[in-house]
Amino acid sequence: MPTPPPRNPDFAARTRADFTRQQVMQTMGITITALAAGKITLNLPFNTDFAQQHGFMHAGVISTALDSACGYAAFTLMEPQAEVLTVEFKTSFLAPAQGDRFECRAEVLKSGRTLMVSEARAYAISNNREKLVAAMSATLMAVYPRETGR
Amino acid sequence: MPTPPPRNPDFAARTRADFTRQQVMQTMGITITALAAGKITLNLPFNTDFAQQHGFMHAGVISTALDSACGYAAFTLMEPQAEVLTVEFKTSFLAPAQGDRFECRAEVLKSGRTLMVSEARAYAISNNREKLVAAMSATLMAVYPRETGR
Amino acid sequence: MPTPPPRNPDFAARTRADFTRQQVMQTMGITITALAAGKITLNLPFNTDFAQQHGFMHAGVISTALDSACGYAAFTLMEPQAEVLTVEFKTSFLAPAQGDRFECRAEVLKSGRTLMVSEARAYAISNNREKLVAAMSATLMAVYPRETGR
Amino acid sequence: MPTPPPRNPDFAARTRADFTRQQVMQTMGITITALAAGKITLNLPFNTDFAQQHGFMHAGVISTALDSACGYAAFTLMEPQAEVLTVEFKTSFLAPAQGDRFECRAEVLKSGRTLMVSEARAYAISNNREKLVAAMSATLMAVYPRETGR
């Protein structure tokens, strides 16, 4: 699917700046490893602080990285003054989230002025092998200044 | 809707014990504040370590608490030897996650031997007032020892 | 949860008029059996024309009735000039869709100017007994004349 | 993603036979246009009998075709004695469902013994051009004879 053109030529710098304002990304050690118009890859390191009862990463933590990936993929295509909000997401968990680190790759499926739809997949990486562990589809909203409601 | 009967008379103690094994619950300060057969309430305190770019709690962190609420509500109805896994969840975000703390209230909608469906809602609490901020529906799976596959 | 006030005092007549324009409702025999601000109940008769391989109503047909229920519940709260579009929905199937008829009860969880969230449940009715067979959560969009994009 | 091997060498004939048992497929004129292990394409012709209030195909009807696509993609990978049930699905609607016909292409993302996850996309086709109009992710369950519960 062809990626629609960005509405903001300075999308990369703006996306990176906004990302650094998400305190939870630093708390979880999540970083941007690739960025293009309509696409982003985030890296989440394994950390037992965020594990569930079997020692795997908690589904909500994987969703945190996937949601930021979906949101920032959409953000790259938004107008310069827009803010991004998550309307909803669904995540399917396909395998235990065990690995040295996790790559979350998102891309925009639909780029409307108000609503965008992104999809992302999380891969567990260990010893240079990767395994698909989760898939998200998300609806994002562009919020413009002075607009009220949602 | 009448809650189906628990398959394990000792469900409360088993659920609390399993909950303490989720390291991420301690990291985020999430605690059980109410527990019954097929129902649970979790409390998540506001913490800027888990905030997004506008200073609200990140959607993934709210989902972490909601997912554990859905999962443990289902767990209370599972057989004594079962483990619980999240198959998938969807979360709708209805208002900014701002407040002193968040209450996540989950209950089981369907209690099959293998699959369960739970619903949960997150309320932001400030000054004794509560506001609905998110709603999750989740599919959970009971996994029994020696069974393989998923 | 208190239902937010309607933005259109004539919501009931407008909703019923729009409903009659959905040809698929007539094809499937779906009718409105109750209507209030933010709430609606639709009735779907059992019909083997819309059955799946085990003779139950197909999941997509149940979703058709649930989606219209979610959409029209939201529509009752929209401004007089707005049109309603479904952004996304998720349906969980809890029991086989067998019964003489199905009642789909929807209500609005969030009523924003642009986006609304509704939830609906489908009950199979036979011999005056009802059984929950499916649950939907849906995001709806109010589209205003002259607005472009989505 | 490599498709996992089928558990039933006779999967194609069994899938086609089961498909013909879905009465709703005939009612809506839905047919199989391509079939392989873990993949299927269904064709849905435009029909005003199944239209919503703007004359487009109803979201639930598109979901009917997408759900059967997801279900039968999974069915191709199931054991010879298994039946398939839809546990849940989510559909995002990306553009109005207008076109001469609709192609629904599904593929399996995860193939467990009990649970499978499929994804499908619906494309509107007019004048040999196609446009993505909807995307579904679905959880399917393999049900084996003599097993009770779900």
Written overview of the protein:
- Four copies of one chain form a homotetramer.
- By secondary structure, the first copy, chain A, is of the alpha+beta class.
- Chain A is 22% helix and 41% strand.
- Chain A contains three helices and six strands.
- Chain A has a six-stranded antiparallel sheet.
- The longest helix of chain A is centred in the middle third of the chain and has 17 residues, at 59-75.
- Chain A starts with 10 loop residues before the first helix and ends in a 7-residue tail after the last strand.
Order of helices and strands of chain A: HHEEHEEEE
* Principal-axis shape of chain A: elongated
Strand content of chain A: 35-45%
- Terminal residue distance of chain A: 29 Å
Report helical residue fraction of chain A: 10-25%
Oligomer: homotetramer
Strands side by side in the biggest sheet of chain A: 1-2-4-5-6-3
Overall pLDDT score of chain A: 95
As residue ranges, the low-confidence spans of chain A are none
Using a beta-carbon cutoff below 8 angstroms, give the protein chain pair with the largest interface and the number of residues from each chain.
A-B, 34 and 34 residues
Radius of gyration of CA atoms of chain A, rounded to a whole number: 15 Å
Structural class of chain A: alpha+beta
Number of strands of chain A: 6
Largest sheet of chain A: 6 strands, antiparallel
Number of helices of chain A: 3
Write the layout of secondary structure elements.
4 copies of one chain form a homotetramer.
Chain A: H1 11-20, H2 23-28, E1 31-36, E2 39-45, H3 59-75, E3 83-93, E4 101-111, E5 115-126, E6 129-143
Antiparallel strand pairs in A: 1-2, 2-4, 3-6, 4-5, 5-6
